[in-house]
Amino acid sequence: MISIQPAYIDDALLLSQIAPKVHLESHGHSAKAEHHEYYISRKLSPEAFSIELSSPENIYHLIYVDEQPAGYSKIILNVPHPEIAEGPVTKLERLYLLKEFYGMNAGKALYDHNVKIACENHQLGMWLNVWMENHRAIAFYVKQGFTIIGRADFEVSPTHTNPNHVMYVKL
């Protein structure tokens, strides 16, 4: 059984336990360990999540499969992108699922949940950045109707960036 729940400040510790694992599962081979350690300590710590969750523009959700935490998402409404003429549009900043839950339609359920929120808030589209070597994620987004519209660099540490596709879908 899949359930999706909003994440609150009280969920910062849980998110900080899930996020590093899914980050390393999907990006672990993209940089040296010390670069990932830097990123995790700055962006995926309980303190970082507390700050993120206290900001009303950040919309986080946790997904559970059979009552086990399986992943999480973050969207931000009304975030324009220079390559997208129409607006308002939503930025899908994070959509992560632990590998053990692949193939259970949990990622699709979490994605659909975020699309529903975007549509309820009159967003015309959704965009995201995805690491160019994350072929599984790219295939997932293409299946949802996303197209590549540009390129961006994702900073893992001050001395390492990963090349990303910017992808967009009309809602």
Q: Which range best describes the helical content: under 10%, 10-25%, 25-40%, 40-55%, 55-70% or over 70%?
A: 25-40%
How many domains in all?
1
**Structural class label:** alpha+beta
Q: How many helix segments?
A: 5
CA distance, first residue to last residue? 27 Å
Strand content: 35-45%
CATH class: Alpha Beta
Largest sheet: 7 strands, mixed
* Architecture (CATH level 2) name: 3-Layer(aba) Sandwich
Spatial shape: globular
Helix-strand sequence:
EHHHEEEHEHEE
Q: What's the CATH H-level superfamily name?
A: Gcn5-related N-acetyltransferase (GNAT)
Question: Which residue ranges are poorly predicted, with pLDDT under 50 across at least 5 consecutive positions?
Answer: none
Query: What integer value in Å does the Rg equal?
Result: 15 Å
Q: Kindly state the mean pLDDT as a whole number?
A: 96
Helix-strand layout with pairing:
Blueprint: E1 2-6, H1 12-27, H2 33-43, H3 46-54, E2 58-65, E3 68-76, E4 89-97, H4 106-120, E5 125-131, H5 135-143, E6 147-157, E7 160-170
Parallel strand pairs: 4-5
Antiparallel strand pairs: 1-2, 2-3, 3-4, 5-7, 6-7
Explain this structure to me?
- The chain is an alpha+beta fold and 171 residues long.
- A seven-stranded mixed beta sheet has the order 1-2-3-4-5-7-6, sandwiched between helices.
- The protein has helices at 12-27, 33-43, 46-54, 106-120, 135-143, and strands spanning 2-6, 58-65, 68-76, 89-97, 125-131, 147-157, 160-170.
- The model has no long low-confidence stretch (mean pLDDT 96).
- It has one domain: Aminopeptidase (3-Layer(aba) Sandwich), CATH 3.40.630.30.
- It is globular, with a radius of gyration of 15 Å.
